[in-house]
Recover the amino acids of this structure.
């Protein structure tokens, strides 16, 4: 992948941008303006570009499960979400049914002149439809998809440049905010985080995810990633426990977020706690510009 | 990707097979037996493993659109389909709604105590549900997914070995068949077609897809692919017209299959004609072992 062979600067100067880049950036600008007017905090969530080395073992990650789940929890918590995802990855709300472990066609039954959701799935689906419709009607979710890594990198740059303006716009709109938007980077292209933080969105609160195979190295590796890339938080996780425990690693602290056995049994989504924790940290960042 | 660096033989001897390989093969064997008893012809359809070089431009292919669409048309035409696909790729029937260009949550409305499909989508969705339920109730579709290229290659080998037995079982069950199953390989790992044809499923009627950027080379390149890999048909297509025109290329013939402007306007799926043509050729293969 080019982004692994060249520096970001070289990459952007040597690669042709997607034709519709400015049009998409316009949509994002409109979305940000609209939600800033409503005093909404903005988060950009980027999903994982599917690469061979990730496909090889990151089944769920490659589907974008964590990104799609996090988007829902951010919206529940009052954020407006820009969801930059690989085309055909899992998406917020539909994720519960699109990817065939839970096929939505099995939930429907032809009943005379109607097609109805079966009794046993009605309540569960109603809750999702109501959340989905709210996000749609109140313009709280902007989904932008990419198909190529090149599209992804150009869009990420464009969006984070816009996200950096959130601060100024916030001041302009008299919001008690000086910290800028929240940028949640779930991807496997770490070197892109450096220009993102240093050049594109220095005002943003930027969080990256780090998947480790050796837990003893998680903290040290995450701390040096924070040094190297200059962002605020690394959320570390291990492949086989990533749905049950993660570690928040900042320059000055580490914190474990873990589901109880009971929560695991009841299929509580750890993203609920990850996002709650991130919002606390983002609020601190907004008021103090420090973590 | 390993399969591009080593020969298939080297690959299979140097790589550990997936743990559940035999269990999955057992499912496929059962599916084949069941449908052979019903005198069903069997087709194996394999979808595209997502690779960087394909992600870069094969947007729709990478989603498995052609594979999922072809599976539906084969079932409509009386075949039993083994659908070997990348996890989270498009799948038969659900493909119409899962991948957000046409979000199924937009089709549902909460109506008092029920959740119903909206009036304007009822007829269209009813038709799909009925086809989906028939395929499910009559066991005409077996979906097996993979997440890694290694899984894909081992499953492909295992399945085609089983597909090759279809001939003998057919004879055993007194079906007018001596030609074996149909194997539709949509993937971008051409060298795998050689052992598939020569070693794993020599009785099968094997078809590969070839995406060309230079139409003037399509026929010559396809003919040499047939020579090199020993299979029966290459279906050639060009990236930007692949949904409207394809070329069937055999050793002794070429045939164009093209949608009319009117069919394009009415969004007729070219797979309908591709599969009709393939079935004719498969029948000829079954009775004469020649194309």
């Amino acid at each position: 992948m080019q982004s692994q062979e060249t520096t970001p600067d070289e990459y952007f100067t040597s690669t042709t941008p997607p034709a519709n880049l400015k049009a998409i950036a316009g949509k994002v600008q409109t979305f940000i303006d609209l939600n800033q007017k409503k005093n909404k905090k903005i988060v950009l969530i980027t999903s994982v570009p599917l690469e061979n080395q990730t496909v090889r073992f990151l089944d769920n990650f490659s589907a974008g499960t964590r990104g799609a789940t996090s988007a829902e929890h951010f919206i529940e918590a009052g954020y407006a979400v820009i969801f930059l995802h690989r085309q055909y990855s899992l998406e917020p709300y539909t994720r519960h049914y699109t990817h065939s472990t839970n096929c939505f066609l099995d939930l429907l039954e032809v009943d005379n002149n109607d097609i109805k959701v079966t009794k046993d799935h009605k309540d569960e689906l109603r809750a999702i439809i109501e959340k989905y419709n709210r996000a749609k009607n109140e313009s709280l979710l902007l989904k932008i998809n990419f198909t190529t890594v090149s599209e992804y990198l150009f869009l990420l740059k464009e969006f984070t440049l816009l996200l950096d303006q959130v601060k100024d716009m916030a001041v302009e709109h008299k919001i008690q905010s000086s910290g800028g938007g929240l940028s949640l980077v779930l991807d496997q292209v770490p070197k892109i985080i450096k220009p993102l933080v240093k050049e594109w969105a220095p005002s943003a609160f930027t969080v990256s995810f780090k998947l480790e195979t050796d837990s003893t190295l998680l903290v040290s590796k995450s701390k040096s990633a924070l040094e190297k890339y200059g962002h605020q938080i690394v959320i570390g996780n291990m492949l086989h426990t990533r749905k049950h425990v993660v570690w928040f690693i900042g320059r000055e602290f580490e914190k474990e977020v873990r589901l109880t056995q009971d929560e695991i049994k009841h299929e509580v989504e750890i993203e609920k706690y990850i996002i709650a924790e991130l919002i606390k940290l983002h609020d601190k960042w907004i008021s103090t510009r420090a973590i």
